Amino acid sequence: MNGSQPIDKKTKQPYAVALTDDRLFSFGGIWDRWKDHTTGQVIESFAMITCEPNDTMKAFHDRTPLIVEPKDYDRWLADVEPSHLPMDLVRTYPAEGMKAWKIAKLNGNGPHLLNPLPELPTGPLTLF
Question: Tell me, what is an example of a GO biological process annotation in this record (predicted)?
Fold first, then answer.
């Protein structure tokens, strides 16, 4: 799929997304442990970091999760002061490095969920 192909977001058609070389990738997030001053309860919380979508992803949503490259894992996971966070890593992943394809509506669990749906023929249909 390319970014110029229109998608009707109201149809709720599921898509699978991967890197073009099919390697695993990681999302960037933050977490913290803090104490609720009212109850005294220690709470662990997290959030996913999102960015502007690239052309592949903007067909689905107006933002996309941050993808952290393996070479940057140590920097992303380092325990640093907030003023030293690696903000240069918070950027949109290049569209040419990603792919997306239509999949069937979720039905159970397993690798079959990633099977591409067959493409319907385009152009005029004829009976003969």
Answer: proteolysis
Q: What pLDDT, in 10s, does the model give residues 18-56?
A: 999 999 999 999 888 999 999 999 999 999 999 999 999
Number of domains present in the structure of the chain: 1
Residue 1 lies inside a defined structural domain of this protein: no
The CA–CA distances, whole Å, from 117 to 28, 68, 112 equal 30, 29, 11
Question: Are the C-beta atoms of 33 and 42 separated by less than 8 Å?
Answer: yes
Is the model's pLDDT at 10 over the cut of 70? no
Contact status, residue 40 vs residue 23, Cβ threshold 8 Å: no
What is the rounded CA–CA span in Å between residue 104 and residue 117? 6
